[in-house]
Design goal:
The protein is an alpha/beta fold. The N and C termini lie far apart (81 Å).
Amino acid sequence: METQLQISVCIPMYNSSPYLRECIDSVLNQTYENFELLIVDDGSSDNSTDIIKSYQDSRIRLFKNKHNFIESLNLLLTEAKGKYIARMDADDIMMPDRLKLQLAFMESHPNIDILGGGIQCIGDNNDIIIPYYKDVMPIAMFTEGNPIANPTTMMRRSSISNMKYYKQFIYAEDYHFWYQALKNGLKIMNIKNIVIKYRVTPTQVSNIQHNRQIKAAKLVMKKFSWLATEKEAKYSIPLQSALPLSKKKLSVIITFLNEGEEVECTVKSIRQTIGDKVEIIVINDCSNDNYPYGETLLPYHIHYIVNRERMGVGASRDLGVKLCQTPYFILLDAHMRFYEKIWAGRIIEELEKNEKQLICCQTRFLSKDKNTGKTEIIKESPRTFGAYIPFNKNSIWPDIDWNLKEQKPKQKKENIPAVLGACYAASKQYWQYLKGLEGLKMYGSDEAFISLKVWLEGGKCLLLKDVEIGHIYRQIAPYSIINKDIIYNQLFIAKLLFPISVYCKTAITAIQKNQILALQVIKEINHQNAKINEIKKYFKTIFTRNIKEIFQYHKTYYKYNNKNQPQYDLKEITLYLKNNIPNDNGIFEGKTGYILWLCIYARTIQESTLEDFAVTLYRQVESAVEKQQLPWNFGYGLSGIGWGILYLWFNKMLDNYPDTIISSIDEQLKCIDPIHIHNSSFQTGAVGIIAYLSLRLSVGLINWPTELLKKWEQKAKDIIEKTTDSTCLYFSFLFLTIRKEAEGCEPMPLLNSWLNSPTHFPLKKEYWKYTLYDGILGHTIQTITY
């Protein structure tokens, strides 16, 4: 027979009357009975204490406290008499066997100090959450969030006797409690069994105090990071002290997170090929895998830095560049292999010729056998020549892909649109002039970002085909990759470097792929507007190329790398257009669509006769607009005609601003009240006018009543709330963004934002549709424009 009180169930309570009786009943009805139930009333103003007093059970002990949650929690710890303390919240429900299950586990595992379990959510959702349960949880599991649910825990009272909750960590006080436990050497574990029903409501603390909880959790996360890196920090060079001056010309900068033995393998490979000819800077970005990096790297004479908090890839690389004491550097991942002795010399040679370039080395694709540790060339891997940004219609821009098309087969080097493969080199001075990777978050898009800036500034990306570096590719990274950070980086780059129309396209594509994360990121980007605009101003002083040139350059490589694109006789298409002029004047299937195609094709092949034909069609469309008998929609009427004509103007395909036709379209469209338009579609509804206005507002002064424009703003907001159509979302979002950020909005209308051309066409030409929206005209135009 048990003589010692085994368990103290501890519940803090504040105005909990709606759920309190159900909670207490679930405790009193446990299949295990040797427990006491301690409840601290944290200054409730409802009838919660009356509910508790209505129970006639000697196991219940009620304490009253002024409203001070942390003090109430510590009072529970002080008053508990049991061998174990079981935590519980006043609105949750304990599963019938919870105490029996957890007690049995703790009794049979004397090395475990704190035990959590699974939860079944009730209320606003019914999710089942099974925590990690296979082993004692290392510090690593706590560095990115709290992996144990506080109300599921059972704690060995003797183990936590010198611990308490602290007010400065309120709303994340349990997370800090686990920090104290791990710092004291305690062992924490979960069981997979569901031990409570956890109530989810809009009024719970995690919702009402969400921002304060996040802030407190970040403070605790920082403490866990420092705890996880404590051993490695002993080998680190203090960041406040500069690296010694070097007479060498090249520094190798390796940043990593949880790479294990690969860090040493990479460094060893460098030393084996070129010995001590380069400086090596290794930056441990807060690894939490308990691997002895500092110790294993001692024989290689490197500069070792440990980030006590995770900075991310971009910031870690910028730190390495800042610290290096050589004129040039190369950035590497920590899973690379070197083969030739010439690689460092070739990089230095090219950078000494021209510092305004970003040098990429040829990539050898490797895999590593998990059992033997042997690296092998991936047989099916292609031979690549740097990378390019495809600007795919359904991708979040900037996307990036390997370039498979070699431009200069007989030469040892060639220009490329972008670097890829985590082995690229530059001048320290040029990198810092471009502000490096400043602004990026943890992971993603760094190659695309720096490549775009190099080309915009007037420099170039260069591939050294005679320098090959092995790169181990794996399916699973040894660290978590957070999608939100990837999306943030893509939207940050788009907002910083791209015209507003392209940023909006990026944002809408992100929303359609992951609405919750994308909306969070857009909100965060908006908060960064002042900083982004400040960097933009700086870039305006150093950039010498237009972003449209860069887009077109990458588009060329997209064409090279898509060999499956059908080949068309564009002259034959032109002949068809001349012999089959439609009666319709619109942009989808009519003359305006023809005009756009002819002008873009004429520019591509520099054929003036095509421009003459386009001018003839233009005069016909202008005459039709002046008669004021056309519909107002985008597909077949005024909105699309106006958008198409302005597209030509912004792309410098018209000698003069088309004032006559645009003024006429303005006068006709501003008579339309959006309140009376019930069709919101792009082709024939309200979004068509919104699309026109998005481009029209970029011209400058528009003679539309302010109240009317406000009505169109409300219409755009309504459409965003109700539609899932990408084109409708894009133009509505673009219009609202332009209205909000009127100054500095560089126009760049995107045909691909609304073209609906199929990817394949019938072999027999008699079945082709000669239309811009969904036919051969739109399909061919996408290969030569963005």
